[in-house]
Amino acid sequence: MKLDYIIPASLTDGFCAQVAFFRASLDALGGPYRDARLVAVFGDPPQPEIPERWKHSFERVEVEWVYNETAHEKAHYLGQHWRRYEVVRPDCDLVVLCDADVAQIRPMDDWAGRLIAESALGGVIAHQHFPTPGRRGSPEEDWAELGRRVLGAPVTDLPHRYVLTPPDTPPQSPFYVNYGVVMGPPDVMDALYRAQKPISDAISDFVKPYFAPQVSLALACLKAGIKTHALPMRYNYPNDHRADAQYPAELEAVIFLHYLRPTAFQRDQVFSNAEHFHSFLGARLEGSDAVFRRHVETITGGRFPFPA
Questions:
Q1: 280: left (phi > 0), else alpha (psi -120 to 50), else beta?
Q2: Contact 121, 192 (CB under 8 A)
Q3: CB-CB neighbours of 70 under 10 Å
Q4: At residue 6, what are phi and psi to the nearest 5 degrees?
């Protein structure tokens, strides 16, 4: 299996460390993961060059730069967003778009082959509904209004439950996924890219820029008729106590751990220096936080992995 992993990032020590650790995690898995292509798409660097401290750790990471000195917040997010699709190799088997604060802990299971065979897009449904400034935040009303604005008809087919809402919550969402991990073969990514671009402005005027790419993905899939699969939680498992309580079986089988919650540790400090690293290893952690720490210990052998 020929894999492309593409990560958006900013040129900070925290992001550089996360990308470097992702590379180390892939290498430790061996086989197609060790051979996988990893691309970091850096946004907003005034001087586009990897700092000397990180050059060795980036020897097997391709780097793309997105920079516009006049870019406002919306343009900044969308610039990185589009560039990820533009660097996909058309001859790879599977593309994995993921955030920097994600670690792959296990090899992918049969879902990867299924997405390839079916030319389908896969992702884990978002944690909760996106915020809509100035509105009361009704999922049914928001998706209906977005459908009218973008697709010419309200979106009323909402078959999915937001994954961190109570289990008895009714389905309230189309294929609206957390962008921490989204995957599919290159032809699907190309179709998604072409369907998203024309509708991005209308969506960005309705939701905050940070959430616009996620929302545009959902509507682009509907617009282009892209086949989708809501993947099990193990494909984008957050370090969140609510997930640990609702999905204990998935916690035991995590493939991608998304360490985004700052409850027990700061994601941008784990690898920032030896002091923070060893403090993290010695902390009292439970559930998904402890799963992530075990993975870090396995990959690093308990030694700070990066130059000071």
A1: alpha
A2: yes
A3: 5
A4: -130, 125
- Alpha-carbon gap, residue 208 to 215, rounded angstroms: 10
Per-residue pLDDT tens for 229-254? Answer: 999 999 999 999 999 999 999 999 99
What does 105-143 look like in DSSP terms, one character per residue?
-S---HHHHHHHHHT-EEEEEPSSPPP-TTS---HHHHH
Amino acid at position 195, single letter:
A
Q: In what order do the strands lie in the sheet with 256-258?
A: 102-104, 256-258, 237-238
- CB neighbours (10 Å) of residue 47? 8
Beta bridge partners of 238: 258
**Euclidean distance between CA atoms 290 and 90, whole angstroms:** 38
Please give the single-letter amino acid code of residue 229: H
Look at the domain 3-131+177-300 and name its fold. Answer: Spore Coat Polysaccharide Biosynthesis Protein SpsA; Chain A (3.90.550)
- pLDDT digit string (tens) for 30-58? 999 999 999 999 987 666 888 888 999 99
Instruction: Give the 3-state secondary structure of residue 104.
Output: strand
Which token pair is 280?
């993290």
Token pair for 306: 């990066």
Q: Say which amino acid occupies 129.
A: H
